[in-house]
UniProtKB/TrEMBL annotation:
Residues 34-53 bind DNA. This is HTH tetR-type domain-containing protein. The keyword DNA-binding applies. Transmembrane segments: none annotated. It comes from Corynebacterium freneyi DNF00450. SUPFAM superfamilies: Homeodomain-like. Residues 11-71 form the HTH tetR-type domain.
Length: 209
């Protein structure tokens, strides 16, 4: 019982820190966000934040990953074989993230952050997404014959990296349309829809036997 209360308290503090970090990034941009401000808004001390995250980079990457997890948790079961279900989920996730307020803000204020999140070694949260949501789909697809043979971990990692890269691309398309008014926004949305279709088809071909 005591251990459960301790775990609950740690989770609560973790969530408060991540919420505060997201709020600060949305409010002033990543470049002007500081650990001191995050700690203050989360109601914790700076050492408490640093015990969990080595620096602002690591914390920002955790916020980015949680955006993925939030959408993944909302997805319902899809029809079709394992590959069709995975591709359908991929399309929904990509569309929602690309149009999401957080990623649009980040693409405008610090697009390099998303690039660094893509190329840096994967942390525990990214591995959690791959191991809990992508890898099981790869395994099921290889079992039912809808996904090609190959190392399932490699396939899952590559699908995740394509998703990250595509989110940055689509977010940048929308960001660049802001100064062009309604016509620019309409054109950007069409471009994003086309990009989502193209990337989704690419993932489908990559996984197909």
């Amino acid at each position: 019982m005591t251990m459960n209360r301790g775990n609950d308290a740690k989770t609560s503090v973790d969530e408060a820190i991540i919420d505060a970090a997201r709020e600060s990034i949305m409010s002033v941009g990543l470049r002007r966000t500081s650990i001191a401000e995050i700690a203050r808004n989360a109601g914790v001390s700076r050492p408490t934040v640093y015990r969990r995250y080595a620096d602002l980079d690591e914390l920002a990457n955790e916020v980015i990953t949680r955006e993925f997890l939030r959408i993944l948790a909302e997805l319902r079961e899809m029809p079709g074989d394992a590959r069709q279900r995975m591709v359908a989920r991929f399309r929904i996730i990509l569309a929602r993230l690309s149009n999401g307020e957080f990623f649009l803000n980040l693409a405008e204020t610090d697009p390099e952050r998303i690039v660094r999140a893509i190329i840096r070694p994967k942390g525990s949260s990214e591995r959690s997404i791959i191991e809990q949501y992508i890898l099981p789909g790869i395994n099921h697809g290889q079992e039912d014959g809808s996904i090609r043979d190959g190392d399932p971990i490699v396939l899952a990692n590559n699908v995740f990296m394509v998703m990250q890269s595509a989110v940055l691309m689509c977010s940048n398309l929308l960001r660049e349309s802001v100064g062009d008014g309604a016509n620019g926004a309409d054109g950007a949305e069409e471009a994003v829809d086309a990009a989502v279709d193209e990337v989704t088809e690419m993932v489908d071909r990559y996984l197909r036997p």
